[in-house]
Amino acid sequence: MDIDTFRNDPLWIINNRDEPFILFFDETNNPRTFRLTEKGFNSDTRDFFILGGIGFKNEKALKNVSTDKLFEEFKLQQNSTEIKFKHIRRGAENFIDLMKSDRVRIFIEWLLDNKLVIHYSFTDNLYYSIVDIVDSLDDSAIMNWGFNREVKNSLYLLAKENQTTFVKLLIEFDYPNIKSHRLFIEKVVDWIESVNINDDFYLEYFRQVLKSYRTKELPFLKDNQDDILIGDYSLLYWRSLSIFKNATSKLDHEFNIEKYLKKDPLTSNRKKLENYLFEDSKNDKFIQLSDLILGILRYWLSFLDGRSVEEISNVFGQVAYEEKLSLYKLQRVMNQSLNISNGFKHGIGSNDIEKKINFFLEYDFNVDKGNVSNN
């Protein structure tokens, strides 16, 4: 697979993408295949797939960082062969409780003090699965990229709020392999009309356009496998390895991805890309630490996804000072990472979740900055 065409796409304008970063990867919430079952989905749609971890600006920065003191402060049992997120979670059931963990606090401070970067790509499975309905419309019908995103966002929020009835509709037609496009379109049109009680403009526009497709086919919803919504998550791997082609990337073993890369290797200027390797996490502490940050990000995205901006703001306003300080330090690590490269944050998700992520990144936690390292 040639990556140069992909990298030259105007949508992938990434600053500092050619720098020799050292990136470590793990993943979380990987159902391998996301599909429809007789009862719904095979995986909870609230569990975003996330690929990412920690990283360094270059080899010199990597050599200047030691994990010895950090692992000593974790105070793990002597029979522990590697550290996992469960070891620092300390039984926390949600993101705010996670910020109360002393091990999480120690880890976030270590990231900040050592100027490490956080990089991540996520996929909202429900969003990814249904946007082909919108993308099947002609460009002239959906206006522009921004309008397209708003239509997708409204459809996603409606499907999320009325998931039971929407999923029944998808199951009925073996989505995304539609055989009767006319009947499917009629059912979607009727469904939107029945549940769009707030008379959302984008939904009504989409419904009216969709009505004109009764005599057409939705091109992205044919010649697919019945009920297979996401065959695998290789796209996020391809993206990360392609965008940062001059980085050295070390990934925890994921044998399906390794198989695909071996079968169809990444190439640049007709040469095989050799910028990555797969490693057993037991042999690499930085991959282990990537598991920790992904665990934190998993809780973070779940927290944001399950609340409105107003509810998020209310929670932040009520947390105790120590948790607020940890939230601020996590926010600072994220923002410092994005200042190095905006490519360290990537998501296949709705405008709604992007709005909440940006709210977190810009929120004023009103803490004493003197309690935070200024390195």
Automatic annotation (TrEMBL):
One Pfam family recorded for the sequence: DUF3800
Listed name of the protein: DUF3800 domain-containing protein
